[in-house]
Amino acid sequence: MSLPDTMSIDSDTASVQILPFDLNEEPPLYTQDRDADIDINADTHMLDSRLLKEHDYHLVRNGKQWLSLSLKDRARTGDELPHFTQGSTLSGSVRLVLGPKGAVIRSVSVSIIGELTSPVYYSRFLTMTRQLYVSDVNDLDTSLPDPPEVSEGKLDGEHSWPFAIRLPKGIRIVLSDKEGHNFLLPPTLSKHASKVQVKYKLVARVKKGILSSDNRLEAEFDYTPRFRPSQPSILRQIATMENQPLVGPDEDPAGWKVLDPIVLRGKYLMKRLIEALMSNNQAFHCSSPVLCSGYNDTSHVVHYML
Predict the structure, then answer these.
(1) Would the pLDDT of 91 be above 60?
(2) 45 pLDDT exceeds 50?
(3) 76 falls in which pLDDT band (50, 70, 90)?
(4) Rounded to 5 degrees, what are φ and ψ at 227?
(5) Is residue 58 within 8 Å of 68, Cβ to Cβ?
(6) For the CA atoms of the chain, what is the radius of gyration?
């Protein structure tokens, strides 16, 4: 049974909730009909027939691997960053190797975390946690899916816990207007030239005794939403096939999303007060998706603004 997962977001203007899998209202998507939703419950695991590759991550102590995280995906080689798409299940295992004297391990858990960062802003928009092992009933979180049985006492020797966490459809954000809005999980954005980054990672956490610090082992992965855009408008297709300029929004309204114009006011060369009407039209299915237009009684002023 699918249950909502734990969430957290560091923001003064928004709160976030993971969309459960049986939510009636779908996140907005591109479809054949731009005003309709597509079925994003389709099983995407069978779309790629490549064999599963295993990515292994380790924490080493005294030359020995004592904490290991294994993650499976369909990467072409084990050297690639793990990659998952909408509806994918992150599966693998957490392995713990302890000495013969044993150790007090309060809990072992694994979490999927999504983060948005910029020079002035940070938001953890996704947190999905599964507890794999718990030795203290006070550490058991019964609000999480499939909580483990409490196993009292020390751990010694080698132990391994498998996990499987399905990525959600998206997130529901309550913005400053107090209304909930559905959004797809954003794709990974980690270009060095970009000041804004979206990153996903899988984190294994070992919680020890009260006087001991916790240990974390992280594995970053890429995420890509999976959806198919609708066909371009007829006039757009004709222009593309004949290598002609695109038809504008006035003649091809089906190929554009026309936004309301805005009025810009300012000073020209720090002296003359100017006012211009600016329109911003976004094209569907085009590598040059934005058309900006400016209107003013002086042409060189508009040219200066654009």
Answers:
(1) yes
(2) no
(3) low
(4) -155, 165
(5) yes
(6) 25
Give a yes or no: residue 128 inside a domain. yes
pTM of the model: 0.64
Indicate the pairing of strand 272-283 with strand 262-268: antiparallel
Residue 156, token pair as written in the block: 């010694």
Residue written as token pair 């391990």: 105
DSSP 8-state symbol, 128:
E
Total number of domains constituting the chain: 2
Report the Cα–Cα distance between both ends of the chain, in Å, rounded. Answer: 54
**Residues 67 and 139 both lie in one domain:** yes
The b-or-e profile of 239-262 (16+ CB within 10 A means b, else e) is: beeeeeebbebeebeebbeeeeee
Is the distance from CB of 286 to CB of 236 less than 8 angstroms? Answer: yes
Task: Classify the C-alpha dihedral 49-51-53-54 as positive or negative.
Answer: positive
CA distances from 8 to 11, 19, 113, 203, 248 (A): 9, 13, 10, 15, 43
Residue type (1 letter), 220: E
Residue 46 has phi, psi (to 5 degrees) of: -90, 0
Sign of the Cα pseudo-torsion (297, 299, 304, 306, in order): positive
Q: How far apart are CA 242 and CA 212, in angstroms?
A: 69
Domain that holds residue 70: 15-224
Q: Please name the amino acid found at residue 136.
A: D
**Residue 5 domain-assigned?**
no
CA distance 76 to 83: 10
**CB-count exposure of residue 1 (10 Å: 0-12, 13-18, 19+):** exposed
The CB-side HSE value for 92 (13 A sphere, CA atoms) comes to: 26
Angstrom CA distances, 252 to 8, 228, 285, stand at: 43, 22, 13
